[in-house]
Amino acid sequence: MKDDSVKERTYRKEEMFLSPYACHSQNTRGRQRPEEACKMRTDFQRDRDRIIYSKAFLRLKNKTQVFFSPEGDHFRTRMTHTIDVSQIARSIARSLALNEDLAEAIALGHDLGHTPFGHAGERVLASLSPTGFAHNLQSLRVVDVLEKEGRGLNLTYEVRDGIVNHKKSGNPITLEGKAVSLADRIAYVNHDIEDAIRAGLLREEELPKSDIKILGNTSRDRINRMITSIYEYSAGKNEVKMGEKEAAALEHLRSFMFDKVYITPLSMKEEERAKRMLSGIYEYFYNNKEKLPPFYLMLSKTYPLEQVLCDYLSSMTDKFAIAVFNNIFVPRSWALTEQDIEEI
Hints:
The protein is mainly alpha-helical. It is about 65% helix and about 0% strand. The N and C termini lie far apart (about 80 Å).
């Protein structure tokens, strides 16, 4: 069997089984820079693998989803959220006969540019930088510029488009990108509810009864209902949408979470601490550019310093940001001598 027959077989399967509205792997618009094709994998499969083995992807395991540096082992991180989105997006793609490889690659890459301390960190960087900051734009910058020591991952057009347009306000060019956008909202609303209940910030009986009646009592039931609704509404059509009733219930649950969990006196108190920390780090390196790590110092010769500072700060995990802040601003303790101990 020839090596290239594996990829060709994938192409034939897509021709046979995918929807006419799906994005077929062999029809990709290609990469930013030409490169030799893989004999075994399609371009979308290669993109998925490149994202999984990127440094930015590995850092997601230590970045906040909702709760800052949670002590429990079962709270979501940005990594587990990304896996959740990937699984839901693949389920949607499979039900609608779309390209699962493309949906998976977009989902795995959609939050690569997220800041430490979740959306609180994103709001802080947006307020600090005169050029603004948005995690979807930063995710694209990660795969285009920052990975591989400035060479980027050289992903396909379709994956890059899905990453930058995954927010609700975006408009992906592929149905697979639209599936990821919906999967993102389905995942974070339902799983943030679970985490909030686990943290004692929310009780199940507080959830809006009208929405629970439509979607279900448990996270599993709600996710299944929403995926089923997308299938029922979108099968055989050139669109990926949820039924109006389910979509309205999801949006109402999302608003409920903003009121009860995301934007509360407790969460804003934690956000103020994150703001002081990130603002201090930003200001320090703005005034001491030469103290930046070599890679970011090199970037500052090509890009505005404000952009490079956002690159550096958004790349940090929660723990690393705290460590950098402590290293800059917290006085270091000296070991006690025997005489000190005696005097105590």
